[in-house]
Fold this protein.
Amino acid sequence: MPYLLNLLYAVLLILCSPWLLAGAFRKGKYRDGLGAKLLGLVPLRDSTATCTWVHAVSMGEVSLIAPLVEELKGRHPNWEIVISTTTVTGYALAKSRYSQHAVFYCPLDFSWAVRRAVARIRPQILILAELELWPNLIAAARMAGAKVAVVNGRLSDRSFHGYRRFRPLVRRLLGQIDLIAAQNPLYADRFLEIGAQNDAVYVTGSLKFDGAQTDRDNPATTRLRSLAGFQSRDTIFLAGSTQHPEEQLALAAFRQLAPAHPELRLVIVPRHPDRFGEVAEILAASNLAWQRRSGLQIDGPNPRARVLLVDQVGELGAWWGTAGIAYVGGSMGKRNGQNMIEPAAYGAAVAFGPMTRNFRDVVAALLNAGAGVVVHDGAELAAFVRRCLDEPAFAADLGNRARRVVASQLGATRRTADLLDALVANASNSQSRRAA
């Protein structure tokens, strides 16, 4: 089986090589960490402490695991926690956020790479965030005596239907997973239907809620608010995690409303760093006074600039704390939404587009509580912002409802950590017996 997978992966790499090479040369993607990715040359761990290996694919998962990492550190200060990721932006954020831990690129799922990586890390448990089912990696961890867990487990409609087509193979893979901590009962049932073991599946809730900051005066937000020169009289309209054409829609809404509302400020945070330049060109052509986040520390805030482009990675969570009005991007295109929990937790008046399949349960909770608004196009976005400006009580009520929704969903981190504690204890006992 590993050899067939190796062959399949090799064929896929060859077929995708033109696209991969183009990304490497044009955008600098895929070039970093080749030793880890292809050969499993991850950091060599030389201590005998209990080790937890957490894999978080990209920026979203890297942020997601923060409360769980903190919980495990608090419970077990002597444990070693190592973190792997896949994308360049995920790696950069992980290096910044988890500087006290070993951070590395996860090896590709070639048998030789994952076996070497597991041998160098020697984990007692491998934790996979959300849904990263790599057969060779899971098999290598199990062969070394480690337990395997999926945390914040989710199965979207698309993934569920895809896995169900290959249920015999998927059942064999899921049979090697010791714990699946699912976000909700629907996802738990889906895991069971495609072959997960009954005693491995638990409903713990979503870690996304526990990781959300609620204090607008937290140090990171306070620093950014001061850096941008925001005043208490300002109303911040923040469009975050945006993709094309959401920046133009937010800008059009701002242009329409700004003359009558001198207190209005617009902050745009594109989802992907490789679009910073593109969005800067859009702003430059707008004839509006605007400024880059990267220039604030050099030039200071420009009093004339009422539009700010955040061109830094990993700051969106703190910027949401400055917002009174929030539009969560990735929801008017093909991306199927981004995390709307963070602005909701701050008590912002939250809107998002209709394409939010990746956050269906969160959206349902907000809409059922009257704590969010769906906008279908630029006109509806502008109307939403206008109503928030003209009716402060409406915006405040929307924000308070959103904050209460987040508060009602807390506790997933503690429940997940309880289950992981039991797994690590079992893994340590198993590895002791193997050594004897």
